[in-house]
Amino acid sequence: MNRAEPPQVPDPATLLPPDEPVRLLDEQGELHEDPAFPLDLKDEDFRALYRFMVLARRVDRQAINLQRQGQLGVYASLLGQEAAQVGGAYALAEQDWVFPSYRELGAGLVRGLDPAAILHLFRGTWLSNHDPRAHHFGLLSIPIGTQALHATGFAMGAKLDGKDLVVLSYFGDGATSEGDPHEAMNFAAVFTAPVVFFVQNNQYAISVPLSKQTHAPTLAHKAVGYGMPGFRCDGNDVLASYAVTRHAVERARAGEGPSLVEAVTYRMESHTTADDATRYRTPEELELWRRRDPIARLEHFLERQGLLDAGLRDEVAEEAEALAARLRDEITDAPHGDPLELFDHVYAEPPAHYAEQRALLRRELDAGEGA
Amino acid sequence: MAVTLAQALNRALHDAMDADDKVVVFGEDVGRLGGVFRITDKLQERFGEGRCFDTPLAESGIVGTAIGMALYGWKPVVEMQFDGFTYPAFEQIVSHLAKMRNRSRGTVALPVVVRIPFGGGIGAVEHHSESPEAYFAHTAGLKVVSPGTPADAYSLLRESIASPDPVIFFEPKRRYWLKEDVELPVRTEPVGQAVVRRAGTTATLIAYGPMVRTCLDAAEAATAEGWDLEVLDLRSLMPLDEAGLLASVRRTGRAIVVHEAQVFAGFGAEVAARVTEQAFYELEAPVLRVGGFDIPYPAAKLEEFHLPDVDRILDAVERSLGY
Questions:
Q1: Which of B109, B240, B244, B274 has its Cβ near the most Cβ atoms within 10 Å?
Q2: Inter-chain contact B71–A131, Cβ cutoff 8 Å?
Q3: What does the pLDDT read at residue A228?
């Protein structure tokens, strides 16, 4: 994996992000193509992007409602970030992998993950219910930015195995201040690992704004320090998010190594349902971003293309309602499962004293039933 | 044939990589240099730069990428260059390496070995002589293994690499040059089984890693007092061989647990508590703990005043016999 020859040092000028984020759709939904980031999408892809974004928003709203009804302990909303998440994940091929944080429900939908798995985690029934191999979608990672290293390691592993596989790691603007994403980007660059680091810059790490998170010109500029290109896109423009990520993915697939994509977006809800964003954000700021709504912008585009007829709108709305209803059914009063299972998955080869502790819990459960 | 503990570890890595082409070794300076203690000597030459490679200098990066490589299907054996440099990797070890199997309800195994040269006695500068094993023994999801002999160094490392569970493997760095007549490959008792290194009747000295040798020296010296000490080598802290531990203590009626780490909230406290809970009526005296003082590891010229030695152990034996 080490290279005998020192790598060619890239010209820093080629790594710099553009002054303005790449934007393909203006707020009226008019398409302005960028030859540097060509769109290779067909009508069915535009419809699919729309579908994923609408589903993500509906599931998100359902999750917030379930939390308010006491069915989820907490929930981290993606509202406003649908385009960044869906556009990024849509740029991947089936064999590729995603390593998410805890807010990537939209990306999970694109990968085919049942959102119930994520809601079970926030309900607190079993810690996470999904097999990462089923959809090439890693377990939700709550410690900030730590998953970026798993993405890099996975990509290093794939490269060592000679497999054509690209790994995309999501993290947020706050995570760029942590050590792990830094180490992940550095390792990935040194080993020319096929990774796309996708920063959803939603402007806030809980209450702390980006201006207090970094003194860098933009988050994408950080890429230059690792010797990889930094890209920026309008994260509320799903076509820009897709096209820029697609470019980064194809680079990685061609053996040109990792890159950093900063999607400039906004978290419309509080950090989680336990947070109160009115303490640190103004209604004016919220209104400004509401006008940049990513779904509305795509709808304008689809209308211009003649793709958003009543049929598509109704079909997707019905599917979203059906999905929300199924999630309500599955999550409402969902049982936590057998407490004795607590000992079953810690070790493949559990220590002997687990038998005693299991027996203790068994007795406590029996006593509880008898009472 | 006389082999050192370091040679046994090196041979174990060679043999493990030979036996299973999924085994990869990486860390700081483990490639061309062969590691600062030469434990990975000639692995890169023999198995190529794909399976044994140097990483950037970042311990969290090493463990975090090992987790990713294990998810892919590799079996990483990574090196923390020194005990005191393990801490940057602590979050990856505690939050992910230890927990991912449980978090995934058993679907994701992480067969990763984190090798850590640990302990003092080599006159090293600060941060190069620490004994952080209690942090890891306290973390559910990890196995914690520490050999005290060359044969065990070989066998326990081979077994750890084959383990489906993550293993924190503490190598007693001051015993790297300890020699034993042994034919490699060798298979000793499995992880989780304590071994009586010296049978005795007066009291049981309980140790692991570097203190096994020190306890054997103490037992030898104790014969001058007419004491016949048993030395029990735990070999792994998790799993702990509670049955073997209790059997030995029940034979002698006295237990003294010895480690280099500070005594306060150290692993010895767990041993003492378990022995007291399970063998209270067979004990002739309270379980005593011998260890380093509850201070930051001292400067090199002062470490001899900090580390437990034969005298401190025999002093504890005398106190035990005084009850």
A1: B240
A2: no
A3: 97
